[in-house]
Each structure stands twice: as structure tokens, then as C-alpha cells.
Amino acid sequence: MSAVVDFPVKPETRPYLEAVAGSPGEPEWLMQHRRRALARFAELGFPSRHGEAWRYLDLRPLEQAPLRPLAATEVEAARAGGDPASAWPAAGLRLTLLDGRFAPELSRLGEMPATVWFGSMRDAIVRRPDLVGEALEALAADRDQPFAALNAGVFGDGFTLAVPEGVVVEPPIEILHLASGRSTASFHTRSLVTLGAASRVRLVEIYTGEGRYWRNDVVAVRLARGAAIDRVALVEEADAALHLAVFDATLGPDARLSSTALLLAGGTLRHDAVVRCQGEGARCGLYGAYLAAGRQQANFVTTLDHCAPRGETREVFKGVAADRAHGAFQGRITVRPNAQKVDAHMLSRNLLLGAHAAVDTKPELEIFADDVKCSHGATVGDLDATALFYLLSRGIRRADARRMLIDAFLREPVDRVEPASLRDHLLARLSARLAVLEET
Amino acid sequence: MTVSIDTRDTVRALSGAVYKYGFVTEIEADEAPPGLSEATVRFISAKKDEPEWLLEWWLTAFRAWQKMTQPDWAKLKLAPIDYQAASYYSAPKLNPGPKSLDEVDPELLRTYEKLGIPLKEREALAGVAVDAVFDSISVATTFKQQLADLGIIFCSFGEAVREHPDLVRKYLGTVVPQTDNLFAALNSAVFSDGSFAYVPPGVRCPMELSTYFRINAAKTGQFERTLLIADRGSYVSYLEGCTAPQRDENQLHAAVVELVALEDAQIKYSTVQNWYPGDAEGRGGIYNFVTKRGACRGARAKISWTQVETGSAITLKYPSCILEGDHSIGEFYSVAITNNLQQADTGTKMIHIGKDTRSTIVSKGISAGRGQNTYRGLVRVQPRAAGARNHTQCDSLLIGDKCGAHTVPYIEIRNPTARVEHEATTSKISDDQLFYCRQRGLTPEDAVSLIVNGFCKDVLRELPMEFAVEAQKLLAVSLEGSVG
């Protein structure tokens, strides 16, 4: 793509427009889509904190020191080495994306039913454009969210999972996003999951790495009638890393989505869940927890759109901000005019532990239908003094007692995760992070 | 059951859903030519014979206003406002300086009578001192002498500028700066009158101070300015009621209210807003873009806002409390109703700055017809505000399937010892409740009135007596035609 552009360009977007996107052999439809998306990004520019959507995230460091997308030729071959601590040891199937590119030597794609397509996005673009073409072009986030638009313009790789009607993939599939630390750059990955009617999968996404980098990840999920997905995201990025992720899901009739996200480490983290309950009776559970210390920033953003009747939503988000960290939750549930009998609840609970820490929460309801049950709740405060006293009076050291209470507080969103071995892994990661938190 | 009977009577009396206060008083008016420029600002200043410092203040605001843009974050469908089409000054021509009510133009007094604020009657019965603002000039102030004996100053803003310039200069713009937002800047550039009250240290104001606003002449915006100062240890309760006659074009109302409560002082500010909401097709109606803010400047000060918002085509207002003093308290009680095509984006801001500050927010939103009702509230606890407490309760009621009820709370906490809780629910009137009421012989409208009044009870009981009755009637009138 040439650096010469003929559309309005915001100055901060310029370094990214010159990036080499895709590879020379790409199909024309994709190149066109990339160009449109980049034009949109250039027009939108970086989001301002004066706008509502990015109110609670400070992106000035990125504006001052751009992190250019890594070109395909710059990705070095993976070295052999042990799994990172964040990876799930019990994972059967694993697809690894190293510095934003599929790394076959670090992956175990294993045995899948023949009708299931599972592989890298680059592979799918070449071999199965029918699977990815339309879906890649139709992402709503690409129009509204500048970094999703940038992602659509310059993504290098990702994964594709397509499960046909009625197929149940039992073993959880792990996607391991690694950053090698060898290049200071941005990794843009875009992935797609399409589930046929009544199919079911479990997906585990692990984000971890070393060095200074910006990970910009977009995962789109399409669920047909009665399909179900259980998805877990564990984010343990490097301390200097910026992590912006969009999880975009469209639910058909009676489809079911459960997403649990843990933001445990990384410099600046934002997890955006965009869910459209398009079919009648779609059910959605969004759960999450962040643990922010030092100067970390952690943001959960959820946008839930009930377009059809009888939908159900449960959102539970917990947050802990210590030291000088800044945690935020921004949730919105919209119930459209014809979406009667929707039952939606949103809960944001936060612990503020440092004198210089900050917590923001904005649980928003937008209701256009009258026969609905919607509620939201939010709390911000310190640990419960009575509970702390109870533990102290039983001879537990203050530091231990506090850790126990924080651990218990953050567990709730994780408690629903299946299978047990995955849940135990997540809780172990949580405890490990808590131990670090208390020492500092 | 007195409530329901009261409401039922009102509904019956007012059935037909015609805006009761839609009449125009024909009085010769002294108007500024339409449009807004520095010349207009100077014209108003000269007309009102304002001092030089105030003109400078206006001009500063005007220049800031020129650089500002209309806010777009509110959930409102709002066409850009043509500021040049409106006239910014309209003063009824009257004999200079009425000394008592007897000298006030009888035409004006009759207007107020239709509005239900017979000044004389109130003087005698209710013990309310009314500073009636008719369009832009304050025409009569009652009970002035009685208040003056206590050292309380309660007068029109223009008079305050002349008689008490030091007080005005000390406090004007300290709570709502000229550059605060587009509409506050506009107000700061052209406000022609309003109310001013000062309660000296240790004085408990013996009566409810009151202002009624009217927008009368066509195509005139109304830009009053209210400044209320409660000195150390004093108490004052202030009532504000608004009605406007029926007009086809949208009219802009951009007022600014500033409250200052010093150490141990308490201010209770109650509003019943009944501006013309436009007809059933959304034609006409008032744009109510008001900036209201109170500052608790001293320790243990308390500011309490109570509002019942039933009118206006579009409402955009956030009565706020800045809790600077340690142990200061902010309260916000609100009922907002939108029917037909009304839109409201209203709520509050509680800024906790001092230690052990407390705030309570109770908001009840009711949407009917095709109304859109948004609660937008900010609770911010600054790093120094140790031990701050907030509780927010925010309920929405939907009547009909074409309306919308939205809740947008912002909770921004910078101190770990703060405890902040927010709860919100959205529901409709349940069929069970309606059935129960109807079974006992109530008509559907009576049943809805009864249930709505119960829904709003937490807020209505915060209103002073005189207002509570009126507010209940207004709720019933506002919801006419929304059921059955």
C-alpha cells in the first residue's frame, strides 16, 4: 500500500498508514477492505478522552511513541523453549500466534473432526475465502472503533475456527498469543469463529509476552441457532505492553455465549466486548476481573445490544486497583424497541486499595422496550472491615487476611469456568499475581 | 388514599390534556432586535443601566461562548440552535419602580392568577415571598420588609447589582464560571435578570423563598441568573416554579443557578418545572438547558436539590453539588417525566472534595408515550476526600412500548476509603399492580396515577408542602393519555 492517500488524515494515524499491510499475494477483495478500513482509521484518528468511549484510558504514550505494525518479513522463526507460565498446561489443542503470526512449530492442532476448519487466518484467506470473506468485511466495530479499523487494515494473521451444524468439539482449544520481545512493534491479529446450528466449542485465549509492544487483537464470533461457546481470555502481558482487544459476538436464536476475561498483567489493558443478541432467546454471560497495580491501567468495556425478544444477559465484573493503578468498567446494555421480555443484569464491583489508585465505573442502561427486567449495580470501596476483623481475630496476619479477601473477591467471575483444570489454572494465575501485588 | 382522590380530581378537572397555562398576555414589550452580537450585549447592558464591570463580565462570557460548540454527548435528538433568530431581551414596559403590588400592571397580576400564583393570596395565606420574573424583568417582590428586618436580602438580580455590588462580585461566577459550558456562557453573556438572596450568619429564613418564571413573548429566550448565598450557620429553603404559555416554535431557556453554602449553612432548593412540553406531535415546547450548581464551601454545609421535571420539550440539566467543606452533605432528589415526544437528559454531579463528605441521589424517571428519559449522574471522589460516602438509587418506569428509559451513571473514585454504591432498576407498571387497583374500582388512569405517585414518594416527600400538592397534580396531568 502506498503512503499516498486521498482521504482526510489525522496526524497521529500517519505512522500506521505507511505500514505494509498483508502480503503481496493477497486477494483483491481483502486489499480493498484493508484500504477502506485504513481510510476509516485515518478519518477517526486516535480516540479522545473527551469522548465517552475512551474516557478512562490514557493513550498519550502511544501517541508520542508510535508502535508500527510488524511486517511479515520481520517475524523471526520461533525458538524452542518451555511454555510460558500463563499457558494452560493441560491444553490439548493449541494454536500459537508469535508476534502476531501463526507459529506452527509452537502449535498442536491435533485431530479435529474432518468437517471442522481450524487453522491460521492467513491460511483460511487463501484456502477458504468462503469462510472468512464476508465475515471479515461485516464487523461493526471496524466502523466505530479506530483501533479495530486499523486492525482491519493491517492485520497480519489470526486464527479461524469454523464448526458445522451439530458438531460438538469437546476438548478446549487454546490460542496462545505470544510476544517474543525481539521487536518493539505492534501486532495486529484478527480471528474468526463461526459456529453452525447447535454446535459447541470451548475456547481459551492466553495473551502473554516480553518487552515493549502493542497488541491489537480482534476476535469475531458468529453463533447460529442454538450454538454455544464458552470462552476464556487470560491476559498477562509484559509490564511495558499495551493490549487492546475487541471481542465481537453475534448471537442467533437460542445461542449461548459465556465469556470470562481476566486482566492480570500488562501496562495498559483494554478489553472490549461487543455482543449483539440478534436471535430470539439468545443468552449471554459476560464475566471479568482485573487486578491492577503499579501504574497499570485496566479497562473493561462491554456493549450489549438486545435486538430480539426474550434475551438474557448476566454481567459480573470485579476489579482491584492498588498502588497508582487505574481501573475502569464501562458497560452498556441496550434493549431495542421490539426486544420485549429481556432480562438483563449488570454488576460492577470494585476494590480501591491504594491512596493514589483510581477506579471508574459507568454501568449504563439504554432501554426502549417496556416489558423488560433490567438492573445494574455498582460498588466501589475498600475491603469490608468486618470481614477483615473476623480473620484477624482468628490469628491470621493482616497481609494474609487481606490477600485472602481479595482472592475471594476476585474469584466469583472465575468460579463458573469449566473444566475444573482450566478453572484451577486461572485461580493459580490469580493467586500468583496477588502474591506479587502484596509484596510491592 | 388522599393522594389518589386528589389526583383523580385533578385528572378529571384537566381531562382533555390541554396545556392549562397556554395563554398569551398582551403587554407592550421593549425588545432587542433578534440576533446575538457584542452590540446586543451592550444594548441589554445599556437598557438595564448596568455597571461597567458587569458589562465586561458579560463580554468575556460572550467571547468565550463564540468559541464553544453544542454538546453532543447527551442522549437527545436536538437540531442545531439558531442563536441569531432569537431576541435576547424583552422587558415589559411599566411605570418605573412599583412600590407595592397595587402599582403592578393589573394585566400581569391576572396572568399570575391564571398560573395559580396569586401574589396577594400567597402573601397572606402561604407566607411565601415571591420574586416573580415575568420574562426578563422582575416585577414584584413581596415580603421584602419582613425579610430585611432579619438582614436577609431577597431581590431581583438587577437590584442586587445596584444595591449590593460587593456581594454579587464576590460570588458571581464562582460556582458556575462563565466558560463552564455553552449554555452557561450564553447565559453569562446576556442574563438580564433573576433572583438574588443572601442569608446572614446564624439566620434561619422564616419562609420559603420563591420564584416563578414565565416565558411569555414569542421568540424570546429567557436567561435568568439566580445567586443564593447562605452565610455561616444559616438556613434557607428556595422554591422555583416554571410555566410558559403555549408557543409553536421552540424557545430556549438557559438559566444559571449558583448556590453557595458556607460553614454549617443549609440550602434547600426545590423546583417544579412545568414549561410547555410541545404538543402531541412534538411541535413547539421549551428547550430547558439550565446549569445549576451548588458549592458547600464550609464544613458541615448542606445543599439539597429537589426537582420535579414534568415539562419542556427537551430538558438538559444536572443540578450539582461541590462538597468542598469537610463533613458537607449533598442531596439530589428528582422525578422526571417524559410523555409524547419529550426528551430529558437529567441527573446530577456530586463532587466530593472534603473529608467525610456524604451524598445521596434518588432519581425516579418515568417515560410514557414516545418520551425518552435519561438519568446521567456523576459521583466523583477526589483523592483528599477520605471517608466519603455516596448512595445512589435510580429507578425508571416505562409506560407504553414506544418510550425509552436510560441510565448513565459515572462513578469516579480516587480515594480508597470512599464507599460508593449505585443501584438502578428499570421496569414497567406490572399487570398485577394494575389488576389489583382496577379490581378495587379504580379507572386505569387513576390506577396509574396511584402507582406513579407511590413510585415517586421518596422524592415528593422532600418537597415543601405547597409544592408537594402541586407536583402530584402535575404528575397526573403529565401522564394523561398514556394509558388505556
Description:
The complex is a heterodimer of chains A (440) and B (484). With 440 residues, chain A is of the alpha/beta class. Chain A is built from 10 helices and 19 strands. Chain A has one domain. In chain A, β1 (93-98) and β2 form a beta hairpin. The radius of gyration of chain A is 21 Å and the shape is globular. The mean pLDDT of chain A is 90. Chain B has 484 residues and is α/β, with parallel strands linked by helices. Helices cover 26% and strands 34% of the residues of chain B. The longest helix of chain B is centred in the first third of the chain and has 15 residues, at 52-66. Chain B is globular. Residues 1-17, 94-98 and 120-127 of chain B have low confidence and may be disordered. The chains are: A alpha/beta (440), B alpha/beta (484). β18 (358-367) of chain A pairs antiparallel with β23 (404-413) of chain B.
How would you briefly describe this protein structure?
The complex is a heterodimer of chains A (440) and B (484). Chain A has 440 residues and is α/β, with parallel strands linked by helices.
Question: Which key features would you list for this structure?
Answer:
heterodimer, A: 440 residues, alpha/beta, ten-stranded mixed sheet, nine-stranded mixed sheet, 10 helices, 19 strands, B: 484 residues, six-stranded parallel barrel, 26% helix, 34% strand, globular
